[in-house]
Amino acid sequence: MPNKSRARRSTQRVTMTDVAKLAEVSASTVSLYLRKPDEVSTQLGQRIQGAIDTLGYVPNLMAGALAAARTRVIGVVVPSMVNAIFASTVNTMQKALGDQGYQLLLGHSDYAEAEEEAVVRTFLSWSPSAMVLTGLNHSRETRRMLSNSDVPVVEMWELGSNPLDTLVGFSHRDVGRAQARHLIKAGCRRIAFIGTRLGVDERAKQRQSGSEEALRDLLGSQHTRVIDCGPGRMAEAASRAFAELLASHPDTDGIVFANDMLALGALGEAQRRGIRVPDDIAMIGFGDMDFSNCTLPPLSTIRPPREEIGEAVARCVLRRIQGRPQETRLDLGFELLPRESSRRVTVDA
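== LacI family DNA-binding transcriptional regulator ==
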């Protein structure tokens, strides 16, 4: 038989008053610590946090939202959860905003405007303190919902016209120009572009256009061989695209890649075929992923300001929430990293 004298688990929710009593402070001090931890002394903060940890207290954010019409949540929409290039940005944002008592609500659009629209609609229903979107291309309904709300909006990872609110990013068209110019300075004259999902990835499409503009301006080329790998495993798709490029354009001597993962797949295929990189074909990627300096040969690439974007977005969000003035367009630039995959001659980077 069950032991009827056994104490039952309490079903009563731990309250802010319980935390205040254990920490020997007022409930208003606990509330201030949860909302603005920097405005509470270190000693009091440690006592309050100790009480929170001891009691297992979880703040009722919705209760605060009913009073302030806002949760302490920031909605963030990225194109992909599996694309590591956005991970550093989101991680940096979380650290900076978390220190101020905010949490990120993360969703992904899979590069589809309809998916982004659905995520934005859901996030707005939770009364976020701000919204962060990736890029400038949104559906008409997404723009309408955000414009009609009084929620601060930051669009990141891109620069352009007609922003919703605040822009933080860099020019992808300039990235493409820099990639192509770099290969031209290395002596390449028949340059191709290999990308993936160019029909929906607007930023990759801009890099392609920038590459084509540089080739046209510097070489007078009217056409660049472009291969779109489509969805799927990028390294494997790039390997097939590289083989296709060699079959259709065997005189290709330089390749601009939409990202480093595609370049990695092409490097592997080049090794299998005995093609020398960069002597036969020079290559440059985009992203400066962790493996990029460890490939054989090390991959020339463009380093986007991943962490810098996260820091700037967090600053913009906090200033907008606080009603403080700020710039509405932040161009953080990018860095060209010349490595052995494109060093055919001395390169003026």
